[in-house]
Design goal:
514 residues, alpha/beta, four-stranded antiparallel sheet, disordered N terminus
């Protein structure tokens, strides 16, 4: 009797499985599709969680970490189980169960976020971990099915590993560039769930496990129907936001733009001079104080939302040219379709990133730059840095003004850092805010909220500005000079190389908006 020593070069080595009826093309399709599905779930989960956790570095890191954990866990367990049982029994259930979980995810997360927010992270982790692990188990299982000889181990493992990676790349590109821009988050996940269950049925067609397939199909259908009635629905799901337009019951022409559950803009479609939000009235007070009444301006708006301020400038300063950099084309469509934006109003809206938009603006070409791209749960950090503010200063003429709306809470660490950054770039900086919000009221703890920063290379009359704030009933105060320096303290400068904005920002505990 001969013995096999080392790695056998025989066609079929002892202890290895024989052909399991899965051809190379079928194996590649299974591995490619399951790997692509993992990345679709990961990316769409980020979008699904953004209204509740913010689209921050921490949220992205959390979702990526959970997805990688799922991939590692699924690969390890898939290989282990494939050695213990017939691997032909595994791909079908892995696809089917993961499809059912994926289809239930939108309704489940939105319901939990509304009724049990303390459980959101746990449930969200499960909705990523379970399907991610099941789908990641497909690759080692299929590899075991295709290994018919130890002599071709390297070829089989390498080929299927490569196919898996290509599938993940495909899922990433497809989701980021195609699916999110054309379909709702619910549509993507329910559709993916249906495809996975269909794939399961195809893999299981020889075993005739029709009952299990029928049950999974019902679950996917239930997930789609539940998503229609789950809380947190949107009028429109844009590339970046879950958006709704709410009619003001007390003002027939009033409309509130709600993005990711937060009130971002209020627009009176009949009277653009009616300014509902206090911070908008504060910005208007700055502009009206700094420039002669009725004088047309050249303004650049970083962030558009409902375009409250561009409309106000067009109405109060005829001839004003407002260039708006708004990154979300879906929000621009809402402005046109639901918020009464009409051509010829002197408002040029460009769908572009604000930082890139700044680079396209000529030096010294604007009287006013308004920064209104910062939300209460996430901030585009690249619009906060010394380098970004240097670009803002470049676009302003010598008497130009930069006015920014900030939102921060708690110890206001982000707002203080941004104020320090502005003082590094401009000669004159002022802080506007409610005394209780910015910690100027000794009888009340600092609560935070909206604050407005004003920066320029020419002074703004603080007395005139305070009178304008009072006339509009804001209740806000102005802080400059030594008082502002004391308020800033030792806050760090924000730069392109160091801007820990997500760590500095403290969101509000409530979700009542601006």
């Amino acid at each position: 009797m001969s013995r096999v020593t080392g790695l056998s070069s025989s066609p079929v080595a002892e202890g290895t499985p024989r052909d399991h009826g899965l051809g190379p093309r079928g194996a590649a399709v299974l591995v490619f599709g399951s790997s692509a599905a993992v990345l679709v779930v990961e990316i769409v989960s980020l979008r699904l969680l953004a209204p509740y956790l913010g689209l921050t570095l921490e949220t992205s890191t959390l979702v990526i970490g959970i997805a990688l954990t799922a991939i590692a866990l699924g690969s390890w367990l898939g290989g282990r189980v494939a050695d213990l049982v017939d691997p032909r029994r595994l791909p079908g259930p892995s696809l089917g169960v993961s499809g059912a979980v994926v289809a239930l995810t939108p309704a489940t997360l939105r319901t939990v976020a509304e009724w049990a927010p303390a459980m959101l992270l746990l449930v969200a982790s499960a909705t990523i971990l379970v399907p991610g692990a099941l789908l990641s188990a497909v690759t080692p299982v299929v590899t075991k099915m295709r290994l018919t000889s130890l002599a071709e181990t390297g070829t089989v493992v390498g080929r299927l590993s490569g196919v898996s990676t290509v599938g993940a790349i495909f899922g990433t590109v497809l989701t980021g560039f195609v699916l999110v821009s054309r379909l709702s988050v619910t549509g993507i996940l329910v559709g993916l769930g249906a495809l996975l269950v269909a794939g399961s049925a195809l893999v299981e067609r020889r075993t005739r496990r029709w009952i299990g397939t029928a049950v999974l199909t019902l679950v996917v259908t239930a997930g789609g129907l539940a998503a229609l009635v789950a809380p947190g629905g949107c009028d429109v799901e844009t590339r970046y936001h879950c958006a709704r337009v709410v009619v003001d019951p007390d003002r027939e022409s009033g409309r509130t733009l709600v993005l990711d559950g937060l009130r971002h803009s209020y627009v009176d479609t009949d009277d653009p001079t009616f300014l509902e939000f206090t911070y908008v009235r504060a910005v208007a007070s700055v502009v009206d104080t700094a420039f002669p009444e009725g004088e047309p301006l050249a303004a650049h708006h970083l962030g558009g939302g409902g375009l409250s301020l561009p409309r106000y400038l067009a109405a109060t300063r005829p001839g004003t040219r407002s260039l708006v950099s708004e990154i979300d084309s879906g929000v621009v469509r809402i402005d046109r379709d639901h918020l009464g934006l009409r051509p010829g109003a002197g408002i040029d809206v460009r769908v572009e990133d604000g930082r890139l938009g700044l680079r396209r603006v000529d030096t010294g070409s604007h009287d006013l730059v308004i920064g209104d791209a910062f939300g209460g749960v996430s901030v585009p950090w690249h619009l906060t840095t010394v380098e970004a503010m240097t670009d803002v200063r470049r676009t302003l003429d010598e008497d130009g003004l930069y006015v920014a709306n900030l939102i921060d809470h708690g110890e206001l660490a982000f707002a203080r850092a941004e104020a320090a950054t502005l003082r590094e770039t401009f000669e004159h900086v002022a802080l506007l805010g409610d005394p209780a919000d910015i910690g100027l009221d000794p009888s009340a703890p600092s609560e935070g909220g909206n604050l407005v920063m004003v920066a320029s290379d020419r002074p703004v009359d603080p007395g005139a500005l305070q009178r304008a704030l009072d006339a509009r009933g804001t209740g806000w105060k102005i802080v400059t000079g030594a008082g502002l320096a004391s308020w800033i303290g030792d806050a760090p400068l924000l730069t392109d190389a160091y801007a820990p904005v997500d760590q500095l920002l403290q969101p509000s505990r409530s979700r009542n908006g601006r």
